[in-house]
């Protein structure tokens, strides 16, 4: 059965999904060693309530219009009781910045370990870019992962006034995601050595930076 189209998270409609988002976040850290903000404790357990508080904060950002989160669900008939199951998600960070209103950060591309190799990542990323275009980029602004571009001044005035969407995202070298983003049209910027603590080994791992310019 074909997957339904990805949808956008709305706090007034989907706040009950926050525990599911937090649990999937924790599952990806434990299952894959995904490096995304949180680490397991010495017993190898994730502090899911802490992650839930984090997602509650992200939900508030959606309500303020500075974040978009894209959700992918299973078809209703695929799960017991004909209820859809969350398969994966990705988030677009749009913090306010007068100096970079055309930029946005792609964050938290996570797919449930139970729903890998079904095209979920490609689907939610496609929807994210569609929404970014619809925003006209007036709300797409610099995030911390976009700081390498803060000083660019080589674009001409027409380019600066055009609806340009410049997204940068980060991924751990060797995680597998480094092969996905080029397939989606993202270009590698470089590698930051010893950037993050790996949740399984506690070793410092390198971070890769990618970007995509959606002007076409």
TrEMBL record:
GO function term, MF aspect, one: acyltransferase activity, transferring groups other than amino-acyl groups
Cross-referenced Gene3D superfamilies: 3.40.630.30
Pfam families, sorted: Acetyltransf_1 (PF00583)
N-acetyltransferase domain ranges (all copies): 36-211
SUPFAM superfamilies to which the protein is assigned, alphabetical: Acyl-CoA N-acyltransferases (Nat)
InterPro entries: Acyl_CoA_acyltransferase (IPR016181), GNAT_dom (IPR000182)
Cross-referenced PROSITE patterns: GNAT (PS51186)
Top-level lineage group: Eukaryota
Protein name: N-acetyltransferase domain-containing protein
Protein species of origin: Friedmanniomyces simplex
């Amino acid at each position: 059965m074909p997957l339904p189209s990805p949808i956008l998270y709305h706090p007034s409609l989907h706040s009950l999904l926050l525990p599911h988002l937090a649990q999937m976040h924790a599952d990806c850290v434990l299952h894959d060693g995904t490096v995304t903000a949180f680490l397991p404790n010495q017993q190898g357990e994730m502090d899911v309530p802490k992650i839930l508080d984090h997602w509650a904060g992200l939900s508030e950002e959606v309500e303020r219009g500075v974040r978009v989160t894209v959700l992918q669900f299973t078809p209703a008939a695929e799960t017991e009781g004909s209820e859809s199951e969350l398969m994966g998600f990705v988030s677009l960070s749009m913090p306010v910045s007068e100096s970079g209103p055309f930029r946005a950060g792609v964050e938290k591309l996570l797919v449930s370990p139970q729903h890998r190799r079904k095209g979920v990542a490609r689907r939610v990323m496609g929807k994210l870019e569609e929404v970014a275009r619809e925003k006209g980029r007036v709300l797409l602004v610099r995030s911390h992962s976009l700081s390498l571009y803060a000083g660019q001044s080589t674009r001409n005035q027409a380019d600066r006034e055009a609806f340009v969407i410049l997204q940068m995202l980060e991924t751990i070298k060797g995680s597998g995601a480094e092969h996905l983003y080029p397939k989606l049209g993202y270009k590698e910027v470089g590698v930051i050595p010893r950037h993050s603590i790996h949740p399984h080994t506690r070793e410092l791992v390198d971070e890769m930076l990618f970007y995509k310019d959606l002007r076409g």
